[in-house]
Write a structure and sequence with these properties.
homotetramer; mainly alpha; 2 domains; globular; potassium transport (chains A, B, C, D); transport (chains A, B, C, D); TMEM175-like (chains A, B, C, D); potassium channel (chains A, B, C, D); TMEM175 family protein (chains A, B, C, D)
């Protein structure tokens, strides 16, 4: 029987390299700066309670950034690459994450604030114009596009080095699936950006949800790629 | 003779993994931001002296966060787990610690400020309403509940993997004791939260100390679990 | 056939030492503080959009600091030195980088701001006097001079320890080339400083570009050193 | 012939442990926060030039904190201890360093500011009262006392574990010398504190320099301990 998609890739290294030390420290700072609002030590109990209203926003942003970190960690552990391509793409990932820490926080703060009527946010952030709404979705979508593109490039880089790394046939297949998956996700982000840039929000107010709802496409996309990968893995295991 | 409870668990790894690098950098950043009040470089000797009044608050918060770090370090060294459960629970621990850095500081600043008549705090923080007092205790207690629950889950996760890790019978016993200990501590925090939420502070002012005094229960709870564990270890060593 | 200049130096170590952990954490912190404007969490979508105008400035500064980090990483991996000289020079590098994080940002912010008519910068930074223009170039040039001098010293230190490290003849040759390269770059920075300090900007306004254009000399200098090194490597490989 | 005092201690470990990762990250943050004035990004060239006046202060503080880091690194490399005592004393060192980052900066800013007539400091910090002058010296001296005492305890801890570590007779001798050296330095700091607290600054203005000049005693103390250690090492080597 074929192995499941998740445990095909072997762990090739446990100890971090310097590149990973740099990446880990940067991600650790990014989440710390996300959660600990600097220059903003609460000076009274009521300020502390107000600051805690941002916890749902922090939680979502923390989960998103922690998942990116985990994906990079798994990439490193599975492929054990430390060459110029790995360094360049990893540093690009750090750069995109650092640029997006605050926009991420704004977008989710906005979402929780509007969903809760302003309660779930220390400072209610309002969207004042249609332009601002478009801009928030476009910036968020470009961030997703950038992150998923970098991961697609990281997996492509690993796939090209398969001989040097010593990837098995099943591992090469899973690597190709991961490239496809990140490309598909990047395309979903691109679709959301296109919708945000072109939909007539002012005339048809109901369309303002569409750029956000577009991200729901990630779920069937992931499921479909997963099923296809399981079939291919089975075929590979069945082959003589 | 049976070994004491403390030195039953063997050290299985000395070198940090990437997960631990991430956790360590986050904890180090958290304590640094706790102690170094950002955006607040003292600009004169008198401001420096004022800032030093916060040292007792910093010391207590530093000790608490450093102990959490040490417990996580020991957990990693003893069980050497680096799987999805270890990653998820460790990141959850980092998130809870980051959320609680400033509330912790506020609560102890409040405590030292009121115990010293406002002297031991750079800015005297007053409790203005009964609601604020309740809220401070509830937030603090929920933090304790979260931290101890995460540690109980970490030890439960290790206990379940005992075969893969290769825990001895004595080590499995100590792991169970550590689960019980963290559950007991989490229940003490829950009791404090319940007292803070329900006691009639306004009518009986003397009750305002009870949610804080509830934490004294940690001492007999720890002692009792320790004695029970020593007896069980002895029984295990005596068994054929 | 002789190997190319880039892959002559062997990797002697993959795992970081404590010195490198310290250097990496400092660099990671420096780029994080560069990109995440502290004490400046955007509070609205329009503030977020304004902050994103600084992205080109961040990108250039990030690339420059990331390259310094990468050069230090390669130096460590190739020479595997952890003695007093390595510690002292590495800490000096960290110090110079930390001192220069904000000046670097100012200089590129100024450049993008003036190239784009004030659009590519959150806060348009203007040069008000000839003295300020001179000063910006002098500070920037002294930074380059310091960084390249530290790298020249690092390579000289490695070259002197060639017997202890076990450098091959080709590796010693490449080490000498890297010393020369960093000395040449430091001299270019020195030339720019001299031009900025002495050119009659007020009388001949066209000369204000010269201290910046001086850095274009880095390109032919690098190319020429590269060609000379390739020739020497070939001669070495051809020698009996 | 006997080895010199400096190279008696053997390096027992190169790779950092988690404790050291935590200590290194904390020291890296401390120096970064020292140098990069947070919440204070210069917004013009003249502000940048003003900020650069603090460079001498930063340099001295950086050197002092980097030396403490280096001493801790050497302690770890030479004794390779990772037990409860090592963890507790190392965390205590981190705490004292974090508490002292800003006071250190104030004291040297004050010194450079007064030596240069206010030029070498972004914001001239004046001492307004005799009490403030006493306080600055007392705070600075207590910091030195704390740091040197922690190092004395670290070396004492290592000396006690000599059998477990496997220290040679010469290494035990050097360990004892390092305890004495740190105790002697702590006593110099204590002398400076006593002078600052008791000297009649108001009546005899010339005495205001004495608490600072007391630190010059470190030089003969270090030289004398060094000579005594060299003699003892020679005697040890000569013994049958």
């Amino acid at each position: 029987m074929a192995a499941s998609v998740d445990d095909v890739l072997q762990v090739r290294r446990h100890q971090p390299t310097r590149l990973e030390g740099f990446v880990d420290a940067s991600f650790a700072f990014a989440v710390t700066l996300l959660v600990i609002s600097l220059g903003h030590v609460p000076a009274s109990v009521s300020e502390m309670l107000a600051a805690l209203r941002d916890v749902p926003t922090f939680a979502v942003c923390f989960v998103l950034i922690a998942r990116m970190w985990r994906n990079h960690r798994d990439w490193s552990r599975h492929y054990d690459l430390d060459d110029a391509g790995a360094v360049g793409l990893s540093l690009l990932l750090v750069f995109v994450v650092l640029i997006y820490v605050y926009p991420l926080r704004i977008v989710f703060s906005l979402m929780f604030s509007s969903l809760s009527g302003g309660w779930l946010a220390e400072h209610a952030i309002g969207i004042r114009t249609v332009f601002e709404l478009r801009a928030a979705f476009v910036v968020f979508g470009l961030g997703g596009l950038a992150i998923w593109s970098v991961f697609a490039l990281l997996y492509r880089h690993a796939g090209r080095q398969h001989a040097a790394i010593g990837l098995s046939a099943a591992e090469r297949l899973v690597t190709r699936v991961l490239i496809r998956r990140n490309v598909a996700f990047a395309l979903v982000a691109l679709l959301s950006v296109a919708l945000a840039a072109t939909l007539p929000f002012a005339q048809w107010p109901a369309t303002i949800w569409l750029p956000g709802l577009a991200y729901l496409l990630l779920i069937p996309a992931a499921a479909r790629l997963r099923r296809a990968a399981a079939r291919e893995l089975q075929a590979l295991a069945a082959a003589p």
